[in-house]
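Lecture 7 notes: from sequence to structure.

We start with a single chain of 99 residues. Read the sequence below before looking at the structure.
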Amino acid sequence: REVLEEMEEGKPFSITYVTCDVNRNTGGDLMKLENVILSFQEKGAEKFGFESPEPNVTEHTKRANHYVHASRNVLLQNGMRRKFHLRLLLEFNGQKVFY
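Now the structure, written as tokens:
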């Protein structure tokens, strides 16, 4: 809960997580993302040096239900988005996360 509260403050952070895609039977890679913000906070991202985000794809997409699936989207500095699952989060700002 503390990690989520810090993420939602709107300041850039770094995370390390494990990838997993049950539908494609892939994952297990360690991903380290530096200087990212939550995607829904992209309106204020310019002040931290982020490029304009990729446009949202609205055709034939389902709602993400992030709170139901315990996932979040983060915005990278180059404007790309990445999704990660909170339960697969290993580090937040260099500190280990215990779920």
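The longest strand covers residues 26-38. Keep this in mind for problem set 3.
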